[in-house]
Design brief:
The complex is a heterodimer. By secondary structure, chain A is α/β, with parallel strands linked by helices. Chain A has 2 domains: 89 residues, Translation factors (Elongation Factor Tu (Ef-tu), domain 3, Beta Barrel), CATH 2.40.30.10; 168 residues, Nucleotide-binding domain of ferredoxin-NADP reductase (FNR) module (Rossmann fold), CATH 3.40.50. Chain A is 21% helix and 32% strand. Chain A is built from 6 helices and 15 strands. In chain A, the strands form 3 sheets. Chain A has a 7-stranded mixed sheet with strand order 10-9-8-7-11-12-15, sandwiched between helices. Chain B is an alpha+beta fold. Chain B folds into 2 domains: 230 residues, no CATH class; 128 residues, no CATH class. In chain B, 33% of the residues lie in helices and 24% in strands. Classes of the chains: A alpha/beta, B alpha+beta. Chains A and B meet through loops of A and strand 6, strand 7, strand 13, strand 14 and strand 15 of B. Chain A: Pfam families: DHODB_Fe-S_bind, NAD_binding_1. Chain A: One of its GO terms (biological process) is pyrimidine nucleotide biosynthetic process. Chain A: Its cofactor is [2Fe-2S] cluster. Chain A: This is Oxidoreductase.
Chain lengths: 272, 376
C-alpha cells in the first residue's frame, strides 16, 4: 500500500546546521518495506503536505529510518520542526537506488554538494560495511560554509579511522577554517582513484552534478559508471502526477538515481 | 473468435432510448452528449431524449459553435469541451483523510466516496484511444491510481464510430479513427439515409452482448451494414487537419533547440486550456485541507497543468520559467517522450487543444513548422 501514509514517530532529532535537521523515525505499528540507499520516501507533515526526501540512514533496529531535511518551504519547515515523539506519515520506498554493487571490485568515489550528502550517507555506510568488496573509498564533500557541512563529526571519525579518504571544501571559509576553499570538483584532482575502474556516486545542486560529471568524464570515468541523484518537483511519487519529468524520465520511477549516460543529454538542455 | 455474439444488429431511435433504459436498469449511471450552455457537453442522461438530436458543431482553431442541422442526427458532432476523463479521472478528488487525536497519534485512511458504475454513451474512436492511454498511465504501471482503476474497471463503453469529423479533427493521421475495432462493450454507427434514421450496433464484450440481447433489435441488413461502412470510410477522407506523416517522436527529440518554440511562445498565453481539454493529459497536483479544529486534514488531488509556473517549482524557483520551455514540455511530452514513459503517443487527434486555445494555436501547424525547420 503506497497510497496512504503510514504513521512513523520521531524518536531522535539532531540539528545538523541552522536550517537542516536529521530525524530518526520508527514505525508506530506497521513498517514500510525496506529501503535501499538512494531511494526516497514521501514524508507527510499532518495538515501541511508531503515532500519527497531520500533516506539518509537505514537502521536495522526497529525498522528505523533517518531523513535529513533542509527547511526551504512550508512542508520541509514543518518536518524539520517535528519534535521527538511527534508522528509523521511516510509512504515508500520509491525510486531507484544507488546500486553500490555496480562498484564491486573497483574504486568507490562519492561526491556530494550541500544537502546532497544526505542521500549518499547510507551508501557510504554500506560501502564501509562491505569493505573488501571495494578498493579505495573516496568521499569528497562540498558545503557553502564550514557551518553548513552535514555530519561533520561522522566525517571526522571516518577520516580519522581512515577506512576512507575524506576531503572537504567550502565556498566561503570562516574564521579558523584551514581546509580547502572552492568547488568540490577541485577535490577530484587530489583524490586517488583509477578512473577506468571507478564507480562515482554524485548528488548535490544540478550545476554541481553537471560540473562533477563533466570532470569525471575528462578523467576517464565511463558515463554509465557515474551515478547521479536528481531532483524535480514531485506530488505523488507513483508515476501519476507528471511533475517529476526530465525529458523521457519520470524521476520518481526512473530516478532519482540514474546513470549519467542516460541523463547527460537531458541535463544539457536548458529548462527541460 | 469471441465467445459472445458479435453479429451486427440494427437499432432505431426508440431502440436507442431502450438502451439507455436498460443500462439505467442495470444500475449504471449513463453519461452521454447533450446540449448545454451553447455547447455539446457530457452529462448524466435520464433518457435518450436529452441527446443532441439535430445539432451539429462548427470547429476551428480558437472557435466552437453549435449549429442546427438539416437532419435529426444525434451524433454528427465533434469533440466538445469535455472528455471522458472528466468522469474517469475527475478534476478534483479526495484521496485520504487524516485525524490527529489529543495524544498526537495519526490515523490516515483512504477516503473516496463510492464510485458510480458508469455507462458512457457515444465514445468517439479518438476518445476510446484516449481512455486506453490513460489506462496505461494511471493503472498500467507499477502503482495504480485506485480511484481511476475502480471507476474504469466498472465502466461500460458504448463507442460511436465517426461519420462526420470536424474541421479540427486529425484522428486518421494519429491512427485512432474514424472507425473502432476493439476496446468497447458496444459499438454504434449512426446511419441516416432514405431508409430512415437507425444505428448499426455490435457487441465487443460479453456484457455488451448481454445488454444487446435485452434490446429488441433486428439483424442488420446488408444495405445498412454497407452504408455504415462506406460512411465511416468516407469520414476518413474528410479530416479537417492532419499531422505530418513522419516519425513525430524522433522529430520531438531532435527539436529541443528549435527556433519555432520562440515563435509559438510569443502567441501562447500559457493558460493551460489545451491540457485541461486534452483527453489524455493526466497531470495532477495535491492540496492539503484542514478543518477549524486543526485535527482533521484531507488530501485532495486536482488537475494541474504543465503550463503553470508552479508545476516545476523547486527550492530556488521553477525549472521551466519561460513559456517557450513550458509549451515545449507539453508538445514534446505529448508526441515524443510519452512513448518512452507509457508506450505510445499521447495524442489521439481529437483536435480539442486547437478548438479551446484562446489564441487558436494549432498543434498540427506547430508540428509542421518544426518539421520544416528540422529539414531546412
Amino acid at each position: 500500500m503506497t497510497e496512504v501514509p503510514v504513521p512513523y514517530q520521531v524518536v531522535r532529532r539532531s540539528q545538523e546546521t541552522t536550517d537542516t535537521t536529521t530525524l530518526v523515525v520508527e514505525p508506530v505499528a506497521r513498517a514500510l518495506p525496506p529501503f535501499r540507499p538512494g531511494q526516497f520516501a514521501m514524508i507527510y507533515a499532518f495538515g501541511v503536505g508531503e515532500i519527497p526526501v531520500s533516506v539518509s540512514g537505514i537502521l536495522d533496529h526497529r525498522h528505523r529510518l533517518a531523513h535529513t531535511v533542509r527547511a526551504v518551504g512550508a512542508v520541509s519547515a514543518a518536518v524539520c520542526a517535528a519534535a521527538e515523539g511527534q508522528e509523521l506519515g511516510l509512504r515508500g520506498p520509491f525510486g531507484t537506488g544507488w546500486e553500490l554493487e555496480r562498484a564491486a571490485g573497483g574504486d568507490v568515489l562519492v561526491v556530494a554538494g550541500g544537502i546532497g550528502l544526505a542521500p549518499l550517507r547510507p551508501l557510504i555506510r554500506a560501502a564501509l560495511a562491505g569493505a573488501g568488496r571495494y578498493r579505495r573509498l573516496n568521499l569528497l564533500a562540498g558545503a557553502r560554509t564550514p557551518d553548513d557541512l552535514l555530519y561533520a563529526d561522522e566525517l571526522r571519525c571516518l577520516a580519522d579511522a581512515a577506512p576512507a579518504h575524506v576531503a572537504v571544501t567550502v565556498d566561503r571559509p570562516g574564521h579558523g577554517w584551514l581546509g580547502s576553499v572552492g568547488m568540490v570538483t577541485q577535490l577530484l584532482n587530489r583524490a586517488d582513484f583509477a578512473p577506468g575502474e571507478t564507480t562515482a556516486f554524485v548528488c548535490g545542486p544540478e550545476a554541481m552534478i553537471r560540473a562533477t560529471a563533466r570532470d569525471l568524464r575528462h578523467r576517464g570515468v565511463p558515463a554509465d559508471r557515474i551515478r547521479v541523484s536528481l531532483e524535480r518537483n514531485m506530488r505523488c511519487a507513483t508515476g501519476h502526477c507528471g511533475h517529476c519529468q526530465l525529458g523521457p524520465l519520470l524521476l520518481c520511477r526512473d530516478g532519482p538515481v540514474a546513470g549519467y549516460d542516460r541523463v547527460a543529454p537531458l541535463l544539457a538542455v536548458r529548462e527541460l | 473468435m469471441a465467445d459472445y455474439d458479435t453479429t451486427p444488429a440494427v437499432l432505431d431511435r426508440a431502440g436507442l432510448a431502450a438502451l439507455v433504459r436498460v443500462l439505467a436498469g442495470r444500475g449504471r449511471t449513463v453519461v452521454g452528449p447533450t446540449v448545454r450552455d451553447g455547447a455539446i457537453v457530457l452529462a448524466e442522461l435520464d433518457s435518450a431524449d436529452q441527446l443532441p438530436w439535430g445539432w451539429g458543431t462548427e470547429l476551428e482553431a480558437g472557435r466552437y459553435r453549435l449549429r442546427r442541422r438539416d437532419d435529426e442526427a444525434g451524433f454528427a458532432h465533434s469533440a466538445g469541451p469535455q472528455s471522458w476523463k472528466t468522469f474517469l479521472h475527475p478534476a478534483r478528488e479526495r484521496q485520504w483523510s487524516a485525524d490527529r487525536d489529543p495524544d498526537g497519534q495519526l490515523t490516515i485512511v483512504p477516503d473516496r466516496p463510492e464510485q458510480p458504475a458508469y455507462a458512457f454513451l457515444g465514445v468517439r474512436p479518438c476518445d476510446l484511444r484516449a481512455i486506453a492511454i490513460q489506462d496505461r498511465v494511471l493503472a498500467g504501471g507499477h502503482f495504480a491510481d485506485d480511484g481511476y482503476r475502480t471507476r474504469r474497471s466498472g465502466a461500460f463503453l458504448i463507442a460511436l464510430e465517426c461519420t462526420e469529423p470536424g474541421g479540427t479533427c486529425f484522428c486518421v493521421s494519429m491512427g485512432s479513427g474514424p472507425g473502432v475495432e476493439a476496446g468497447y462493450d458496444l459499438a454504434l454507427t449512426e446511419v441516416l439515409d432514405d431508409d430512415g434514421h437507425r444505428f448499426l450496433i455490435r457487441a465487443g464484450s460479453p456484457e455488451g452482448a448481454e445488454v444487446l440481447a435485452e434490446l429488441s433489435t433486428d439483424r442488420a441488413d446488408e444495405a445498412t451494414v454497407t452504408t455504415a461502412r462506406t460512411t465511416v470510410a468516407a469520414a476518413a477522407e474528410h479530416m479537417g487537419r492532419a499531422m505530418p506523416p513522419m516519425d513525430l517522436r524522433a522529430l520531438m527529440g531532435d527539436s529541443l533547440d528549435a527556433e519555432r518554440w520562440d515563435d509559438v511562445a510569443a502567441r501562447c498565453l500559457s493558460c493551460g486550456n489545451c491540457t485541461l481539454v486534452c483527453p489524455t493529459c493526466f497531470c495532477t497536483t495535491t492540496e492539503e485541507i484542514t478543518d477549524l479544529t486543526g485535527d482533521h486534514a484531507e488530501r485532495w488531488q486536482s488537475w494541474d497543468t504543465c503550463f503553470d509556473l508552479d508545476f516545476s517549482l523547486l527550492h530556488g524557483g521553477p525549472v521551466r520559467s519561460s513559456t517557450r520551455s513550458r509549451y515545449r514540455q507539453w508538445l514534446t511530452h505529448k508526441l515524443g517522450t510519452w512513448h518512452e514513459q507509457f508506450g505510445s503517443s499521447g495524442c489521439v487527434g481529437c483536435g480539442r487543444c486547437l478548438v479551446w486555445c484562446p489564441v487558436g494555436i494549432d498543434i498540427t501547424e506547430e508540428v509542421a513548422a518544426l518539421a520544416e525547420e528540422a529539414t531546412s
